[in-house]
Write a structure and sequence with these properties.
The chain is an alpha/beta fold. The chain is built from 6 helices and 7 strands. It has a single domain, classed as Rossmann fold (3-Layer(aba) Sandwich), CATH 3.40.50.150. Helix 2 packs parallel to helix 3. The structure holds S-adenosylmethionine.
Amino acid sequence: MFHDIPRAILKRMKQLEELDAQDRADGIPRLERLRQIPAETGKFIALLAASAPPGQYLEIGSSAGYSSLWLSLACRDLGRKLTTFEILAAKVELARQTFEMTGVGDVVSLIHGDALDHLLSYSNVSFCFLDAEKEIYKDCYELLIPKMVSGGILIADNALNFEKILRPMLNQALADQRVDALVVPIGQGVLLCRKR
Ligand SMILES: C[S@@+](CC[C@H](N)C(=O)[O-])C[C@H]1O[C@@H](n2cnc3c(N)ncnc32)[C@H](O)[C@@H]1O
């Protein structure tokens, strides 16, 4: 999976990493920046996506499609498909360009809208990467867990750098009898849950 990443994907990943770093250096307001995961988190979620059972793969918070590209590697290997949600039109356009220039359109479907308006219509969810505004994590978690297959993987980013805001949701997941859960100190910290 990581040994034969297509050149077009590597090129776009590098562009997006540089754009994100430049936006941070220029002090662009937080909500306008890409706020991508670091590459090590990308590899981590791709490995977990490659280990998830068959079913529906979801991502909440596409931004410009950087994390979706990592997940697309697993989906391509397994013959599975990813649906990713993004609420902001400007970022939807960037993600659309990302998927077009990297040729992953057959693997990744991009939905423009609030993920919370869509999650109820999914079932058999076997993988979800949650990386949106922290205020919606709890609602997403509560909608998703009942819809996940046994062995399904839910990962939520920013478990450490937004620990204060996320503490109630993290405590809920860590105590939830429906999942086995752990906070992993990689990147900004991820909450990793496996449905029992
Ligand atoms: C941290 S960024 C995602 C970064 C991306 N996962 C990556 O690593 O490349 C969070 C994104 O979630 C989007 N977002 C926030 N709330 C959302 C919602 N309710 N539904 C869909 N997208 C949302 C934001 O517009 C933003 O682009």
